[in-house]
Amino acid sequence: MNVSIVTEFIFLDFSSSRTVQMFLLGLVLTCYTTVLVGNLLIMVTVWSEPKLFQCPMYLFLANLSLLDMSLGSVAAPELAADLLNSGRTISYGGCMAQILTFHLFGGAEMLLLTVMAYDRYVAICHPLRYTAIMDRQRCLSLLILCWTGGLIHAIFQTAVTTHLPLCGPNVLDSFFCDITQVKKLACSDIYVSEILLVFSDSVIILPCFVTLLISYVTILVTLCGRFGKGSRKGLSTCGSHLTVVGLFYGPIVFVYTNPSSNSQVDKLASVFYMVVTPALNPLIYTLRNEEVKGAMGKLKNKCKLLLLPQQT
Length: 312
Known about the structure:
Helix content is 79%, strand content 3%. It is mostly helical and 312 residues long.
């Protein structure tokens, strides 16, 4: 029987200790506030500064902030409610919607990080041809490709998940609808479904990982052969990108490839890449980028000038 009779799912608590739950609630609310404020500030800064908005790197950065803000919003509000109420349920339709949006934003961000690596490769290894290769039309096409790829990946993952035979247990040892946890509830053989899900993941993950690896190895080799201010700036920019890539891929690899899985550790790792990483990305780029900090200073002065007439 390939028809699900489960109408809702129940999420397990992080801990039976109310003190631990309140601590995690404060951490999640702090991180989610940082996600919204930090990423929104970067988007407004880039869009308000023509010099940055015309630069491919900052156009991609603004879209990364949009994806981080969207990805953080997939589960953080529900997680906060779960911690506050000591347990929560979600409808079957809501669970599928959560899976769809998680893979949409996660897949698009994975592709965007790869595009950003390619952009830095062209800028550093082919500087004379950079403006010709990364023109406005090419940048917009790459952004459309990221969102389209994420959407196709999300639709495929969700379509396969909706065909899982769920006819009994409905308890998920997670704080959001994770396909890995949903698969454990299947009441018959799902070998074909697992093959399809692995294939879908491989189609997007492997090309992205290989492209990232080749791009950054080539960039580092090129920069090591140069000296001067330009090479130091390039290393600083690539360092920010590599930090973001590590924060994005690290917890995901840990959760989905760890053979000795521990539910509590997996939950904390999931919180990290769903909530903490999107909150850290704005700090990583703003603290190490003088152009972004300068544009934020200009934006602050503009806001002061707009508020000045009201104060007088």
